[in-house]
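Lab meeting notes turned into a lecture example. A postdoc, R.K., suggested we walk through two folding results consecutively so the class can see how the record format repeats. The first protein's sequence and structure tokens come next.
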Amino acid sequence: MRALRHAWPGADLIWIAGRGRSAYAGALAPLMPGLLDRVIEECGVGSGLRAALGAGRLDALIDTQSHVGTTLALRLLRPRRFVSAAADYWLSGVRPPRGYRKPRRLIRRLLDLAAFAAGRPAVPDGRLALPAEAVAQAAALLPAGPSYIAQAVGAGGRHKAWPAGHHIALAEALAAQGRVPVLLLGPAEQDLVAPLMAALPTARFPLQDAGGTADVALTIALGARCAAAVAADSGAGHMLAASGVPLVSLFGPTDPAKFAPWAERATILRAQDFGGTETAAIPVAAALEAVAAAAAAGSAPPPV
């Protein structure tokens, strides 16, 4: 979204979810002011979409899906510029340069679509503009002074998560160094809250202090107040990456070449480099070393 707004600063930017709902109208909506003007949901890709868009011809239409039938239906809208990676750009009105190879990284593919549509490099510049209330709440939950290290405990699939025992050992080692572990647990990790609180009495649990919310803007604002962060391949990892905090990203059964967060400063630790395939194979000592290096090379102290 930042790359699209950079390319078209004065345009009416519309996100279309023809056959479903969009996070841009839900959990991510508080982050969209100034970036996205409208979200259209569950309108189909034919007459319903045409009616939802209203009169006039689209200047540019970027097709982010890969189903050829849907792409053909979208072409019937006759935008002035149409970009689609479906069928290796065969149906696209704008083609990649000769020799182009589709990147493995999903976010890079989307940025390439934006670049082809704009006719110039995609620039996802600047940090997200967070709601003032989320920034203020994060400051109250993590007051200035301590060196906080965020630990995102869960993952959308538990098979991708680093074990809770590893997080406990890492938090204890960080506390012994004088740092304050900040454990981030969402609704799917509620069964871990009590045992982690019992094991780590000096750690902070800001999302629980905020009522157990899984608010995206608050999570990003909390990350911005930390010296470094560690997360598995998870939504929380992407939120922390968006905060600009130096991130240690842990990967096991999934491929970082495809799923790594778009982070300003990231260190990738792969289970395969430690002789395993599950995220649990990443040793606590390796994560501790990477977190310490990330924090040492990090940015200025968090805002007051």
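The second example is placed directly after the first for contrast:
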Amino acid sequence: MLNISQLYFGYRNKPVLSNISCKIQSHDFVGIIGPNGVGKSTLIKCLSGFLTPDRGVVLLNQKPLHSYSKLDLAKQVSLVAQESYFEFDFKVRQVVLMGRFPYLKFWQSYSKQDIEIVDNILEELKICSIANRNLSELSGGEFQLVMIARAFVQDCPILLFDEPASHLDIHHQIKIFSILKKLNIEKKKTIIAVSHNINLAAEYCDKILVMKDGTDEYFDTVDAVMQPKKLSHVFQTPLTITENPFTGKPMLTYNYFSNSRDRDS
């Protein structure tokens, strides 16, 4: 579905992405991990069409991403950015309804079907109770669920998330990733999510893209990537991989004492 080939991008002549190449198949759930500043958010923006690569190409269904009109691309890919800003203090229902905009014809109002889609998503995400509240009244977790709801009603085959669980407590982190996994399985959506929580990515994703110094260091299944030698090399920190006793998935732990000895020596 997404073929990324020799992708390069930089800001003001400062390279950020360098020779990234990978193929993401339909219905994949891919987590993107890596240290701060390696270009994870920039890559997500390139995949959404928000940024245009300096070199290389992103193919969506074998067509270059830049060959799609903005309206057609909005029906294929939706993006939930790390930070979202609104000039006005909209109500939750109004914001979620904005996800239906790509399907409106010129001067057309939202249809009864659009309203029903929004109501169904609000109910599915269990946020009907906040539908008439203003954005300024929401907690961080509630606001993030609203952004996800807007992406859901956009009804795209590909959903991109830049830190969907950032700044949230563990309850909301698990809730959001559980929702994404359910959408991936039941609705066959292709999901790509940047995450600093490596254990969440390992628990819910099928594949992991590990970035280092602006390039793709590893891209493979969770089991293949979640290896202590590989991740310790990328994060420059002694790490250990164990098995989650409840799910059997690989789980990362931090070798604090080893790192303390390195600092003291």
